[in-house]
Amino acid sequence: MSIADQLFGIPVLKVQDVLGQQTITRVPLAPPEVAGSLNLRGRIVTAIDVRLRLGLERRENAKASMSVVVEHDGELYSLLVDSVGEVLSLNVKDYQRNPPTLNPRLREFSDGIYRLNGSLLVVLSVASLLNFSGRVDAA
């Protein structure tokens, strides 16, 4: 999947579904990264704007987002991303820990990286993305 022209990956066993653009209902007083909620076959799913969670600019309204539905602690979450590509089989020997030069905000939400044909694929940690307990808002 890609977000702001950066390749990202999520372990395939975490992914429950991939959806096109969905109708999202805003949740009052939710953090900005919480885009709202959506109805997935009768289940209410919290939608997280991964761009905002990673500290990137908000997506232009004209651009459609996609949803990667993941399960975490028994709940379903929709991770809103720019696009979703193919499922890749990556060799564990090519996995690398986060380099010290990786953007600190990406490092906070990353489990590691893969170098793919001159591109960098950042492996996202679903648990870190969905952990809002360490959040401190300015007054």
TrEMBL record:
Pfam families: CheW (PF01584). InterPro entries: CheW (IPR039315), CheW-like_dom_sf (IPR036061), CheW-lke_dom (IPR002545). Residues 1-135 form the CheW-like domain. Signal peptide: none annotated. SUPFAM superfamilies: CheW-like (SSF50341). PANTHER family: CHEMOTAXIS PROTEIN CHEW, CHEMOTAXIS SENSOR HISTIDINE KINASE-RELATED. This is Chemotaxis protein CheW.
